[in-house]
Amino acid sequence: MERIYLDNAATTKVAPEVFEAMKPYLMEEFANPSSTYRFAGQTHGKVDDARKTIADFIGAKESEIYFTSGGSEADNWAIKGVADALSTRGKHIITTKIEHHAVLHTCEYLEKHGYEVTYLDVDEYGLVDPAKFEAAIRPDTILASVMFANNEIGTIEPIAELGKIAHNHGVIFHTDAVQAFGHIRINVDEMNIDLLSASAHKLNGPKGVGLLYLRTGIKVTTLIHGGSQERGRRAGTTNSAGIIGFGKAVELADERLEANNEYETKLRNKLIERVTTEIPYVKFNGHPEQRLSNNTNFCFRFIEGESLLILLDQNNICASSGSACTSGALDPSHVLLAIGLPHEIAHGSIRFTLSAETTEEEIDYTVEALKKIVDRLRSMSPLYEDFVKKNNKN
Length: 394
Description:
Blueprint: E1 4-5, H1 16-22, H2 38-57, E2 65-68, H3 71-85, E3 92-96, H4 101-111, E4 116-120, H5 130-136, E5 141-145, H6 159-168, E6 172-176, E7 195-199, E8 210-214, H7 229-232, H8 240-278, E9 282-284, E10 295-300, H9 305-314, E11 317-318, H10 334-338, H11 343-346, E12 349-353, H12 360-379, H13 382-393
């Protein structure tokens, strides 16, 4: 079979409609939208159109959308920007142990510069307990950052409830919505969100463009200095084609969200059912229901995830052992350790993330290939051999 792409949490294919929307602004209409001549005016207008499309999608104002180079920059800007702007009020930040490294490493950076960070535990499904979240808030807490949906195990957090708790205590609330944006309906007012990070390439848009939603009145300092782009708050030549592509991707996501979720959920559930019933000693990770429609994550006991990935690739199947940003690491996923898995089980994790283009035939092919690969790897595992001998004696 031709390549089966089941790593859509890492990145997605640019939709044809997105590519067509971008093309003129890479070639014919290539002007810098910050220029004053008429040639640049049309490009500037299209960028503004994209800003409005995206703002409307999350119930925000156009003036509250700032374009960035991606989700990592948006996370850095949100957290460092608030921390710096409110440092005289307090230096305590709350986040969770399962955040993307764009958040975790930013918080670690701030700890080296006099800030204190509380890293909340999660339960076995990866959920934050609202009561523990509230208990962590102190008089000097200025910011809480909790991801909307986890990139590895797909669990969706109770964002609206957490945001309300934060607001009740005068704490600014940020969510890394990179995995959720375009896949879950989000309304920033109803969900009590002050800052939100997103990235175009997770919803069939181009790489290299993202956004920070910044609620009017929230104080943040500038992260990137230089020109006066993005109303003087984020310097750098406007990525016109990327932003216009982002706007088109959001437009498509808005039209197709419910249909895509229904289709992906059906295939996701089939994959979960077949893997967990046809392959022994498998653990399914994340919340069974409160999860992204396209996400599955399994741990296969007695097997290294890296070996699984290599053999899946030899069968033309693209998957991941967790976050793409850490796929080269030998350490087990920090997310799986945070939900209580021991190292030896966490090492055998594989994430399959589907799209609206994934077919039932691809799911069946993947499961059949996976069964053979698991059998092959376990046959070479002394740990598995000892386990079988021990069980046979009993």
